Amino acid sequence: xxxxxxxxxxxxxxxxxxxxxxxxxxxxFERGGWAHFDKEAGTVxxxxxxxxxAFLFGRRTYEIFAGSxxxxxxxxxxxxxxxxxxxxxxxxxxxxxxPRWTNTxxxxxxxxxxxxxxxAKPGRELQVQGSGALIRWLxxxxxxxxxxxxxxxxVVGQGTRLFPDTGPDIALDLVDSLVTPKGVTIQVxxxxxxxxxxxxxxx
Length: 203
What we know:
24% of the residues lie in helices and 25% in strands. It is of the alpha/beta class. The chain has one domain (2-191): 3-Layer(aba) Sandwich (Dihydrofolate Reductase, subunit A), CATH 3.40.430.10. The protein is globular.
């Protein structure tokens, strides 16, 4: 399986609390609910979840998903609900014990080795949804094969950002790009090693 990440971000890079108030209020975050999907963006997200053979979460995102998708009744027509409630779920955490969401395994030992073992299994995608800290760690360890960003036309102005002020530099190859009628930009990238930087030359 290839490891893919899917993240909802604002134009200024915020990924915290896209779904609504109360979803993630770390740091007295008061601007949750800024990600507004149109039909086209929703269709792409459905298609992404339909490609999943397993999910990998950080603890915080897992608990958010388990408390929502994991408790809702089957609506009968949601590819997201179906994937999340029928596919294996793995959580990278040293503190989570006794997960209640069915088909969940906690990875608490050598996470890098465990992720490599998962990637070596047959299948399409091992998907990471949200889970910013985990995504940054996976990128640091060169375990990410593909990055999908849903960039919403809004400047949130506060909150946790996907990429920190300081971190590793990564070149990206653009694989696919789409802009929906309401201005949601969906871009798919593959990590491509270190970026090339221009050098000063005498003129």
